[in-house]
Amino acid sequence: MSHQLATLLREGTKESHTMAENVGFIKSFLAGVVEKRSYRKLVGNFYFIYAAIEAEFERHRDHPVLSKLYFPELWREGTLEEDLAFYYGQNWRDEVKPSPACVEYLDCIKKVSDEQPELLVAHAYTRYLGDLSGGQILKNIAKRAMGLEDGRGLNFYEFEAIPNPGPFKNKYRAAMDSLPVSEAMAQKIVAEANHSFHLNMKLFKELEGNWFLSLLRITWSTLVSRLQGMFAKKSKPASQAS
């Protein structure tokens, strides 16, 4: 029974998508203000979230609905482990803990997996298609802002098993459209996707305080550097200034 679920999700989450993009953390990120201490906290939370989503998909890999969206080439747990080792060192598991918003997100994933596994479609859609669509743009922003020219610490954005995201996204959307779900369940999946966007927004908002302080530090450092440059230029003897 086809309901063009991919289209329903795209149209039904437009408002939530726009709201997420306008959270201060994301607006700053897109503007090129990315600070490692805040970014690595987000990577830590993402690790727990993706590990949970992927564990539940493994658990339900033979489910009549979820089996059609079982694409291990999307899995992010391993790449996030590599990134956390870069930011925190090899003992990162001793330091990285889920934040309160992350715990709420994890509870939601476990609850829907236990009670209505079909709703995991919403969480996979919200995260993975977004990663494939805007991942390279975000990677390039983070690389420039944090000076990670060698790409280390940004493995999350690399899908080695998906060299061409365009055709894969089409394949994924076609798989969503083929899911054997009722009209009522399709609407529940859209509602759950909106809930997923709001859970992501809570993650971002947790970082806004740290992000604002980081923005102030970056702005202050830039101002100080410019003032020092101006004073150095003014203090040069006339013979050197020419």
Description:
With 242 residues, the chain is mostly helical. Helix content is 72%, strand content 0%. The chain is built from 12 helices and no strands. The protein has helices spanning 5-12, 14-21, 24-30, 36-59, 77-88, 92-95, 100-115, 120-146, 165-177, 183-206, 208-235, 238-241. Helix 1 packs across helix 10, helix 4 runs parallel beside helix 7 and helix 8 (120-146) runs antiparallel to helix 9. The protein is globular, with a radius of gyration of 21 Å.
Low-confidence stretches: 218-224
Largest sheet: none
- Please provide the ordered H/E string of secondary-structure elements: HHHHHHHHHHHH
Percent helix, as a range, is over 70%
Structural class: mainly alpha
Strand percentage:
under 5%
The total of helices stands at: 12
User: How many extended strands?
Assistant: 0
Mean pLDDT over the full residue set = 89
Report the principal-axis shape: globular
Computed over alpha carbons, the radius of gyration is: 21 Å
What is the straight-line distance between the termini?
A: 78 Å
Oligomer: single chain
